[in-house]
């Protein structure tokens, strides 16, 4: 469903309404109002989780909470975990978010994600359908030394393209991530610097996939989904990963591009 925008709301009340889904594969029918600041829709501003839910769920997992105006994931607590999504599908957009991670922590930002079920009705992992902007403690997590040419370090297109230059701040310090998707052209920024750029749905994209863990040989179902990520409409959800490590997010904002 297309984004629903009220021009009067933006100009007079500094708010915009988006339609969100509330269940797995549900139609986007829930209208949610979000504040607008400097042209960006504040999809998380430290006060509300409206429009968010667990991947494949009809609610937010209890392990994700609002803590001191941050969206905080704390593993091993009383609440359940799991990846989360902003439940409005996007095609062309800019996403801006500040993040910090615990020592030896690992997480990721997914985009153009689908909620995919297999022939048995089971939910496929979010990373089988969505490219991933890696969030990592580069100095202490073993993933930083895996992959090829540092393509599993922070802000990299996970397991495919390394972030260059690699300018992440250490664990416990805030970083700023920006992802721009426009007609298949994807750009990753880290702390204000462009570090990755590539084009989806091209022979070069297929070649990248075949060079990584999601190749047609290694993981045929994931390869098929990622090779045409976003599905028929080339759109999907933004998501954040539960990788079992503590993560803080704040000032999550969005600009919808034409």
Description:
- The protein is mainly β.
- 9% of the residues lie in helices and 37% in strands.
- The strands form two sheets. Strands 1, 2, 3, 5, 6, 8, 11, 12, 13 and 15 form a ten-stranded antiparallel β-sheet that branches. The chain has a five-stranded antiparallel β-sheet with strand order 4-7-14-9-10, with no helix packed on it.
- A hairpin with a 2-residue loop joins β2 and β3 (40-44).
- The longest helix is centred in the C-terminal third of the chain and has 8 residues, at 203-210.
- The relative contact order is 0.21.
Short description:
With 258 residues, the chain is mainly beta. It has three helices and 15 strands.
How many helices? The count is 3
Low-confidence parts, pLDDT < 50 over ≥5 residues?
Answer: 1-11
Mean pLDDT: 94
| Secondary structure: helix percent | under 10%
Defining key terms:
mainly beta, 258 residues, 10-stranded antiparallel beta sheet, disordered N terminus
